[in-house]
Amino acid sequence: MLSSSSSSPFVYFVTLFLSLFFLFLFAPQILPLSKQQQSPISLQGELDDLHLFQEATVASSRGFFKISHLGTTNPKPKIAFLFITNSDLIFAPLWQQFFQGNDNLFNVYVHADPSSKLSTPQWSIKANFIPAKPTERASPTLISAARRLLANAIIDDPFNLYFALLSQHCVPLHSFHYIYTSLPGNPNAASKAFLTQPSHKSYIEILSNEPYLHNRYVARGEGAMLPEVSFDQFRVGSQFFVLAKRHALLVLKERKLWRKFKLPCLDPNSCYPEEHYFPTLLSMHDPKGCSHYTLTRVNWTDSVDGHPHTYHPPEVSSDLFHTLRKSNWSHSYFFARKFSPDCLKPLMAIARDVIFRD
Asked: Cα separation of 36 and 34, whole Å?
């Protein structure tokens, strides 16, 4: 038998080793975070959002009562267009032409970063600028902004059945009529769209085999996403999507995954929560109800600093738009990004004869 004096160094060594191991493992959750690592979402902001999301859930229940009396009001299903922006909506004149003549079939909602001074958009449509909070690229603030847009759209109009998330750099690739009939369907057969809501599909990119996925999974620390999200459940996809109302409500009711995705990242170079939260959530809850592809075309062939290719005026042509529409899926692309602000003039020049001629 070893004496206590001979075993003490061994015990001390093991104790020290285990202490250092657990300190390394749980330091992100235990130790105070540096300013760079602190969550950009305040407690008050979190509480404000929770109240808003609960209000949207209640409003949705009331909205179902209105929809059940279609013979009284004869409403049309609508698409909610949700813009997240931190700069001017420079393509407002193009969107104005896109929406023209379809007043009762859509709504527009804008989340404009309050730290940015935006000019009044050059359109005559009714756009709902919702109460917004600061946003930052590659942070959970973009998730919060998208959820606020969804909540406000649900509260505002019970007839919003689809929700298209866009940025100020997005442009339409088709006419409004083409996109509308591809989603809710024929506006003259409104009752069918309302009655078939439980089977409406969401169009969101969901990928599971990307080479960088593991680095992004551990960006908050080893084991930080457990037990809510295992690596096998972790997904990635475009932050721009079209959600059916049933999935929009799922997003607003969700709490468990959000607690993980809002954690600050230890590796900011691998942290893009806005590209992971929505694909992971919907993949876990309703993978068969989602397309697994996006309807927004992006060109990543010469990306710079995580940004996709930006199209400039000399590139704008009918050939470009015909190419951008092409998809390997059952739908062609509806929208495209990223276009520089000086593309507005050449875009307007081909809008009627190219963009809106399907």
From this structure: 5
Inter-residue contact 233 to 283 (CB < 8 Å): yes
Confidence at residue 62, expressed as pLDDT on a 0 to 100 scale: 82
125-156 b/e with 16+ CB inside 10 Å = b?
bebeebebbbbeebbbbbbbbbbbbbbbbbbb
Distance, CA of 260 to CA of 28 (rounded, Å): 12
Closest C-alpha among 357, 353, 340 to residue 171: 340
CA separation, residue 130 to residues 56, 85, 104, 342 (Å): 14, 12, 20, 27
- Beta strands in the chain, from DSSP E residues, in sequence order: 78-85, 106-112, 127-129, 160-167, 171-172, 202-205, 242-244, 290-292, 296-298, 335-337
Cα 331 to Cα 202: distance, rounded to the nearest angstrom: 12
pTM given for the model = 0.88
Q: Are 63 and 77 in contact, with CB atoms under 8 Å apart? A: no
What pLDDT digit, counting tens, does each position of 30-41 carry? 444 444 456 678
For strands 296-298 and 78-85, give the pairing.
unpaired
List C-alpha distances in Å: 269 to 123, 166, 169, 212, 228.
38, 24, 23, 11, 23
Say which amino acid occupies 264: P
Cα–Cα distance measured from residue 183 to residue 164, given in angstroms and rounded to the nearest whole number: 11
